[in-house]
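seq as requested:
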Amino acid sequence: MVKKKAHGGVNSADIRALLHLMREKVDASLLEFLLREGTAFLESVGSSERQRAGDENWQNRVIDQEIPRGASILDLGCGEGNLLTRMAAEKQARVQGVELDSDKVEICVEKGVPVIQADLDGGLRVFPDDSFDYVILEETLQTLRHPDTIIGEMRRVGRRGIVTFPNFGFWRVRMDLAVRGRMPVTGWLPYRWYQTPNIHLFTIRDFIDYAEDIGMKLISINVLRDGESHPFQNSDNLYAEEAVVVFE
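struct tokens:
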């Protein structure tokens, strides 16, 4: 049993003992991290701003490397059409966007980007099977009511899919919630619990498990970790902030 100190606190030896007791119930990577660095974090705990030093466009670079010249691309939740504009200009791609926000749809039209105004939770019934080489969904999957439905539609409509999402297994999120007892509000997750658009919280490992469950082939997973991008490693479910997954 972990004993409290006289003033009601818990010392680092107690924390270490408790973590050893939890060995069979805690993510192995998280346990290793806590044993090594957790005590120092607890002494200065607080919400942490996101660190993305010098790599703001890492997702774009991964997507650019994946998509060949002349490909056909459907961008779901295309925003103001920036990705499609670049793909059309640099890759001579055939592009199509889907966006719900009417103001952003208007901007797409002004840019000459073909766009359909639609709610992704309603599916992609307007598109026939295998009508695009790539279907892209950036930073949106966790905001949808039926993420499994849109993944199924991406597989039906496109030959390959690309999804990007924040990793809710990131250690700062885990620690902030575990220690402070509050949903994290940071530069990385800037919303209070009652304001957040994120309604399905999942980790990179969750997505890998999901892919295995439905028989979806994962082509590649790249992550952002400590401000740099690289192919997914086992420890990245704990250390990575974001992921870009290519599947077919």
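The CA atoms of residues 70 and 92 lie 5 Å apart.
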